[in-house]
Amino acid sequence: MAGNPARRARLRALALVAPLLIFVGVTFVAPLATMLMRSVHDPVVADALPETLALLEGWDGDGLPAEAVYETAARELERSNEERTIGQVAGRVNRVQGGLRSVFTSTARELRDARLDTGAAQDTWRGTMTAIDSAWADPAPWHALRTAGERFTSRHYLNAVDMERLPDGAIGRQPEERRIYLRLFGRTMLVSGAITVLCLLLGYPIAHLIARAPPGRADLLLVLVLVPFWTSLLVRTTSWIVLLQTQGVINDVLVAIGLVGDDGRLAMVYNMTGTLIAMTHVLLPFMVLPLYSVMRGIPPQYMSAAASLGATPLQAFLRVYLPQSLPGVGAGALLVFILSIGFYITPALVGGSDGQLISNMIAYHMQTSLNWGLAGALGGILLVGVLVLYMVYDRLVGVERMGLS
Amino acid sequence: MSGNDVHVEFAGVSKSYDGRTLVVRDLDLSVRTGEFVTLLGPSGSGKTTILMMLAGFQTPTGGEIRIGGRPIQNLPPRKRGIGMVFQNYALFPHMSVGANLAFPLEVRGMAAEERQARVGRALALVRLEELSDRRPGQLSGGQQQRVAIARALVFEPELVLMDEPLGALDRSLREEMQYEIRRIHRSLGVTIVYVTHDQQEAMVMSDRIAVLRDGVVEQIAPPEGLYEEPERAFVASFIGENNRLHGRVAGMVDRDVCEVETGGEMVRALKVAPCEVGDHVTLSIRPERVEINPEPGRYRNELRAEVEDLTFLGDHLRVRLAACAREDFIVKIPNVLGHGGLLEGDAVRIGWTASDCRALNHEGGDE
Amino acid sequence: MRVNMPGLLAAVLAMAACGTGSDAPRSITTVSWGGSYGRAVNEGANIPFAEQTGIRVEVEDYNGGLAQIRAQVDIGEIHWDVVDLEIADAVRGCDEGLLERIDITSLPPGADGTPAEEDFVDDGRTECGVGNLYWSTVYAYNADNIPGEKPATMADFFDLEKFPGRRGMRRVPKVNLEFALIADGVPLDQVYATMDTPEGLDRAFAKLETIKDEVIWWEAGAQPPQMLADGEVVMTTAYNGRIFNAQVLENQPLVIVWDGQLLDVGQVGIVAGTPRLEEALQYLAFATSAESMVRIARRISYSPMRKSGMPLVTTHVVAGVEMEPHMPASPANVARALRYDWAWWVDHADELNERFSAWLAR
User: Fold this and answer.
1) Interface probe, candidates A84, A96, A235, A350, chain C, greatest C C-beta count within 10 A
2) Helices in B137-253 by DSSP H: which ranges?
3) Is A381 found in the same domain as A300?
């Protein structure tokens, strides 16, 4: 019976954290799992045209499929139109090969009329479907349908790294003009890395200043660091446009004091410079706060000790202060890097033709193209990248030392 | 090396943080080469500020500090060549013990071999040879303390400063470390300036102790001198236990001895503070210098008293008496011959020599 | 203290009556694009509708796309009732069963009594969406910043020698490819046929390439008039309503070039499975009546899609200017208009978006 109170206490503890666990599960784990699942699993086409797909397995891929396939497909397309799933089916086939969406939707729509209109009926379903859309006289729609009909597929991940499965089943690169994601991943990493470095260079002295300031002034400085959070992201970004544009405040001042000529105004926005400036500003607090919390825990005595032991200020900083502030540097850098990977509004507004980052494409596939499979694959790759970073950080600094306390 | 060379000298040094209140007032102090001088005083007495000015972390508002005769105000801490042990040791937590010790040698550009030899010697000095690879966080408080001392010594400074280094240790460890520091001091012959608020600590280690109060040195003397011949009432009460009787000078016996009226009794006392007839003075009498029921006529100072309270403390018996209109007159009887059958409520006589009763500046007028 | 029993009883009864909900105020949620268009719809349709029927209209803003509608339909928790849609989304949403099918004959007749099915223009008639307004993507310039000869044709937009300076374009392939081909001399009726061939697409990208270095890419509809006013660009593509606002309400010297404008239609649809279907249909009928269209068109320069409404749009309710010259579907402006082929874009949006992004990144 001695175990009972302990068990009750455990149960009570569990009940207390249950709301949190449920919240995390519902709002974080479940959506994440769903998106990752969607990136490899897509049953829509397979559920809508099961028999057609079963028959297509027997098709050698050369030439057109047998009449039986056309007949089954016609029946299932018509049913899909009635059940209003044809839009999703056509959309998925269209992603395999552009231009097929309307072939599938219009065929599905018109098949019923064609069946009723016995006068115009062709003797074969192949003839009927080809009469509706000449694309059916080509093997292309069938190849696309077979690919889109895979329940479990690697094509989203292939697509996300600019690869595709060629008709012969081999894996090859996308055509030159459609290779985009690897480039965007690379640029996203580069931009995020640059922003992280800038935030670190700017944030480190600020954090140090605040950590060493007397309590009253430190509070004030902290509030100043946090002020940017009080305005909306859009407003802050737009203000940067006003400041940085060629006819903007900064250029006007430069021209007024004669540093640059009126025709030599600097291009500081709608290019990489603008992206870096605006995003560094937005993300700076995320660097300063963890740095500050770590630095506040480093007694000033250490620097005095180093000086008394004969170290120059630079030696004392490099050998004594910097190593102890590393957990803060790691936490801040990780935070800023991860946040900037997910940013897309700011670069889209102030960046130029290079203002597209990988998150813009994820947003596009989530909201506009509704290609959640590809969005999930892109997000999955990003997630793996972040986890790898996290593990590297853990190896180098140790997560338990991360200065977020 | 002559033992009488002046190593460190403060000449008229003052320090104020806010420009109004002086934390250190017009300090004159010299420390001889190889001497162990302790700055002793309650908190706020300015002792740490003096140490920090010497180390170079604080700048004097006025006056001059000299080391080996050279003024050092304009020398940054790292160029002063002073070893320093901080209150909480300030061992670098991200470096091993060995690396901590090697740090001052590395920044001096010493070759690796020489460095290792020195680190080894320093660790041997504090008897921690086998802990070289540990991190400070893995050591006990006493071990950290030894490492801190070794680090302050490893680059062979001639002057070492210690800022309440034993404050964080428990009592028995503290006593052990006091003897350890004394041993190291004697074996190396470095000059040590030590800051503490613990008088016993100061007594154990110091060659001389400077008692500080409100930024002023009240008295500087070897431990025996401070105990036996305090010159100020504050010193008398800060070092060891004493009976303090307030009174008024009634007459002069000779150049050194005066007669003081206290609590209705006439007492002869040694004239320490300059005083005239009618001045208020504080009499300081050590409890162990008072005899109970002495041979009649042995002392000119002989009074009546009543035993209020007896406390047996092992090596001595502590007797609280009512005398001189006070009820807290303490007498200690060494546990050598027993307590002579004293009982509470006994009427007794007490006596002491005039030389054991020091007439010091009146405390009340001093505040 | 004495309790006033009859008073208490009355209060309890009153609360109970409210609780039963028999007379609870009905309300629907409409979702639109916000900004000046949102305000125009609110004043032109929502407020009069609420006054007339007593049904409260809650308004939410969104940025287009079917993602949120799909999420609501998927989990069966529908809180959006009526949505203002792009036509491509209206068609896709219909195919995917996200929108209710609308019977056009159930809508009220035109202002002159013409039955609805004859009153609506043919453009953009879809199964699930009811067309409400024509809107257009045009290009515009700031007259103050272009001295001498002014641009007048789509070719001028791409002519950096005649009109040097930066251009603004929306960071999407849509519209830009059409404009490039028009500027390159493709007749309006051949634009989509040209885009349907790989060579045609290459031609469009090649034309865009000629000005790529001078383009500032915009995202939000509010940016182009701002960039023109600031002098950041000499010309920019823009939504005609946004430029109209800057011209008429803010007195900016902006000029729209209607040549080669891309005429698009807006759609209103009802989210499939809404529990407030009856009210939603009532609202839809009201909001797409000729009268509502006219009220909206007198607040923002988007043309009614009912024939009976077109002649009734007179002047702007605030500025008092004649609306006719500002309307995308007015005879003068529509003469050199390209009608947006949503079906082509539904088929090709994904691959072209990838290609466009890849092209931008190069």
Assistant:
1) A84
2) 141-153, 171-188, 199-205, 223-228, 233-238
3) yes
CB A327 within 8 A of CB C28: no
Task: Specify whether C100 is located in the same domain as C86.
Answer: yes
**Tokens found for residue A5:** 């109170």
| ∠ Cα A156 A160 A162 (to 5°) | 115
Q: Which of C26, C32, C29 is closest to C296 using CA atoms?
A: C32
**Which two tokens mark C347?**
């088929």
Q: Is B186 helix (H, G, I), strand (E, B) or coil?
A: helix
**CATH for B6-234 (3.90.220.20, 3.30.200.100, 3.40.50.300, 3.60.20.10):** 3.40.50.300
Q: Is A172 contained in some domain?
A: no
Judgement on whether residues C121 and C47 belong to the same structural domain of the protein? yes
Q: Residue length, chain A? A: 405
pLDDT reading at B308 higher than 70 = yes
- Cα torsion C184, C188, C194, C195: sign: positive
Is A22 contained in some domain? yes
CA distance to partner chain A, nearest, from residue B92 (Å)? 7
Nearest by CB: C230 against A88, A91, A245 = A245
Q: What is the DSSP letter of B78?
A: G
Q: How many CB atoms lie within 10 A of CB C27?
A: 14
Query: Strand, helix or coil at C270?
Result: strand
Written as six digits, the tokens of B39 are: 């700055």
Number of domains comprising chain A: 3
Which DSSP symbol is given to A317? I
Question: What residues in C contact A86, CB-CB < 8 Å?
Answer: 95
Long-range contacts of B256-260 (CB under 8 A, 24+ apart): B257/B354, B258/B359, B260/B359
Identify how many contiguous H helices and E strands chain B contains and give both numbers. 9, 20
Question: What integer pLDDT is reported at residue C13 of this predicted model?
Answer: 46
pLDDT digits (tens, 9 = 90+) for C80-128: 999 999 998 999 899 889 999 999 999 999 999 999 999 999 877 788 9
Q: pLDDT tens for chain A, 405 residues: list them.
A: 455 788 888 889 888 999 999 999 898 899 899 999 999 999 999 999 999 999 998 888 888 999 999 999 999 999 998 888 998 999 999 988 888 998 999 899 888 877 776 555 567 888 889 888 999 999 999 999 999 999 999 999 999 999 988 777 788 898 888 888 999 999 999 999 999 999 999 999 999 999 999 988 999 999 988 887 788 888 888 889 889 988 889 999 999 998 888 888 888 888 889 999 999 998 999 999 999 999 999 998 899 999 999 999 999 999 999 999 988 998 899 999 999 998 888 888 888 877 788 998 898 888 888 888 999 999 999 999 889 988 888 887 776 655 444
Residue C168 has pLDDT above 90, yes or no: yes
Give the mean model confidence (pLDDT) for residues B124-134: 90
Whole domain around residue A34: which residue ranges? 1-38
A137 touches A130 (CB < 8 A): yes
Question: Sheet holding B62-67: strands in order across?
Answer: B22-32, B6-16, B62-67, B70-71
Q: Please give the backbone phi and psi of residue B67, each rounded to the nearest 5 degrees, phi first.
A: -120, 125
SS3 B346: coil
8 Å CB contact of A98 and C347: yes
Complex ipTM value: 0.83
Among C247, C220, C233, CA closest to C316: C247
Residue C10, pLDDT > 70, answer: no
Phi (first) and psi of residue B44, to 5 degrees:
85, 5
Q: Suggest the residue from A303, A309, A318, A400 to mutate for an interface test with chain B (most B CBs closer than 10 A).
A: A309
Chain A residue numbers touching C217 (CB-CB < 8 A):
270, 352-353, 355
Tokens linked to C274: 């809404």
The reply to whether A60 and A99 lie within a common domain is: yes
One-letter amino acid for residue B298 of the chain: R
Looking at the domain B241-366, which fold is it? Answer: OB fold (Dihydrolipoamide Acetyltransferase, E2P) (2.40.50)
Q: Is residue C5 part of a domain?
A: no
